[in-house]
Amino acid sequence: MPQIKNSPNIQLSFIFWVGAITYSPIIEELIFRGIFFNIASTWLDINNKTVKK
User: Fold this and answer.
1) Which residue numbers delimit the CAAX prenyl protease 2/Lysostaphin resistance protein A-like domain (predicted)?
2) What is the tens place of the pLDDT at every residue in 3-43?
3) Which pLDDT score, from 0 to 100, does residue 9 have?
4) CA–CA separation, 48 and 6 (whole Å)
5) Is 49 left (phi over 0), alpha (psi -120 to 50) or beta?
6) 26-to-12, 17, 19, 38, 48 alpha-carbon distances in Å
7) What does the DSSP 8-state code read for residue 7?
8) Backbone angles phi, psi at 45, to 5 degrees
9) If residue 44 lies in a helix (H) or strand (E), which one and from where to where?
10) How far apart are CA 2 and CA 50, in angstroms?
């Protein structure tokens, strides 16, 4: 059965597509920041501005 171009399913899939495009960079940045700050807190002493050994 052919799909009609103005059906609500196409609009809904477009919303999901736009949501996935805008949502994934946010997740990637949160993961990157989590890894970065985990490494930074392991190796850096922020209060004394020194590198831990």
Assistant:
1) 12-43
2) 556 666 666 777 787 877 777 788 888 888 888 888 888 88
3) 64
4) 62
5) left
6) 22, 15, 11, 18, 32
7) -
8) -105, 105
9) strand 44-45
10) 66
User: What is the spatial distance between Cα 50 and Cα 43, in angstroms, rounded to a whole number?
Assistant: 9
Element (H, E) at 45: strand 44-45
Q: Hey, what amino acid is at 24? A: S
- The residue with tokens 């597509």 is 17
* Strand 44-45 with 50-51, pairing: antiparallel
Q: Of 5, 30, 20, 37, whose CA–CA distance to 46 is shortest?
A: 37
